[in-house]
Amino acid sequence: MAMKRYSAFAVAREAMSYHLGWERAWRSPQPKKKYDVIIIGAGGHGLASAYYLGKNHGITNVAIIEKGWLGGGNTGRNTTIIRSNYLQDPSAAIYNKALSLYETMSQDLNYNVMFSPRGLLMLGQTEHEVRGYKRTVHANNLQGVSTEWISPERVKKLVPIINIDGPRYPVLGALYQARGGTARHDAVAWGYARACSAMGMDVIQQCEVTGVRSEAGKVVGIDTTKGAIDCDKLGVVVAGHSSLLAEMAGFRLPIESLALQALVSEPIKPCMDVVVMANTVHGYMSQSDKGEMVIGGGTDGFNNYTQRGSFHHIEETVRALVETFPMISRLKMLRQWGGIVDMTGDRSPLISKTPVENIFVNCGWGTGGFKSIPGSGWAMAELMAKGHSPLAEEFSMYRFREGKFIDESVAAGVAH
Ligand SMILES: Cc1cc2nc3c(=O)[nH]c(=O)nc-3n(C[C@H](O)[C@H](O)[C@H](O)COP(=O)(O)OP(=O)(O)OC[C@H]3O[C@@H](n4cnc5c(N)ncnc54)[C@H](O)[C@@H]3O)c2cc1C
């Protein structure tokens, strides 16, 4: 299913012909009766899982089933921060793989995902936090992940708008990852969808999965609002809705679902060209290419599926950021939204086989799974194709039974 390549020449050619020659970026087919693999969830992780099934393993008789529109879940709702400065070795491996894939994603997908490795700072504002981050820097250096601890003076140089003498917590330094940054979240979903469609896969939107069918402990298909579809293998990649899908399949997951929210300001001239996370006061901020200040808050303190934010969080987050960046007190906030994140007890994901044969889950990315999309898709595809993936090995759902936690509560960087 050849697709015309996007290029500067294509833009010039179309400019000369009233832009009538652009093809649809992906097809919108009706579901077939049966597929080798069905992936539920057309967020970044589901689409990336499908993409690497095709690209790395030659499996293309695949459908990606989405109840809404692709990228309309957390993938299109996040603050787009990308970094790989986690503490534990299995995390470093998968997040660093993801970061490497982000670096070449636009070329690989022939789709501009606007990856911007502008540098990322996690501020140390208490002695305890400083010790924690220094420990992470040492661990990262042993893992081959390049991060450093920088002084308050260097922080000020990188972020002139910051107030390092904060009224409550002074900035004592920062964990700095120069390779970290942002990418355009929708473009990541759209780029993968286009590449999947070009490989002959079916991306089926507005199709909710309502049941999972199995026989003799093995999956045979799903029920959807567009009818029953059979499959040999099923990947469940639905973030905050993972427990609901697991319930349909007859097992339970160690997942809690919570709303996490973000907001953006009115657009202003460029004033900050790095990403800053201030975890003690709790808020994180970067500036989008449009000029909006993109601001991330915390999770609700109770489980819910509301997909919107709550007012007290807006107030707490903005208060935290006003003391860190006093100039934002003059900004108007434009809009605010929430997504349903899927939290595990150790704040690390599940990429795992399940009690039902040939059902695999990829979830539990919680507040921080945008950055891991390509690495997670790579590992999930390998697990589904071969039954084993070195990158996914430690992220089995059974680790909770065995007490083999991968504790990333601090590196997750968001209070929950
Ligand atoms: C406000 C906010 C800020 C964030 N900031 C960051 C950040 O800065 N950096 C970072 O790395 N991560 C961040 N995250 C986390 C990140 O967005 C998620 O971890 C990631 O996007 C999850 O991707 P996904 O593909 O697993 O899920 P999703 O994108 O949510 O996709 C799952 C899809 O499954 C579909 N689905 C659900 N149920 C069904 C069903 N029954 N049938 C069919 N389809 C179904 C949904 O409609 C959805 O489209 C943030 C999240 C939020 C909410």
UniProtKB/TrEMBL annotation:
**Which of UniProt's keywords are assigned here?**
Cytoplasm, FAD, Flavoprotein, FMN, Nucleotide-binding, Oxidoreductase
Instruction: Tell me which cofactor or cofactors this protein depends on.
Output: FMN; FAD
Task: Provide the top EC class.
Answer: oxidoreductase
| Entry EC number(s) | 1.5.3.24
Q: Where in the cell is it found?
A: Cytoplasm
Annotated catalysed reactions: sarcosine + O2 + H2O = formaldehyde + glycine + H2O2; sarcosine + (6S)-5,6,7,8-tetrahydrofolate + O2 = (6R)-5,10-methylene-5,6,7,8-tetrahydrofolate + glycine + H2O2
PROSITE patterns noted in UniProt: RHODANESE_3
Secreted among the record's keywords?
A: no
> Which GO cellular component terms, listed alphabetically, does the Swiss-Prot or TrEMBL entry include?
cytoplasm
**Signal peptide annotation:** none
Return the NCBIfam families for the record.
Answer: soxB (TIGR01373)
Family that this chain belongs to: Belongs to the SoxB family.
Protein name in UniProt: Sarcosine oxidase subunit beta
Organism of provenance = Albidovulum aquaemixtae
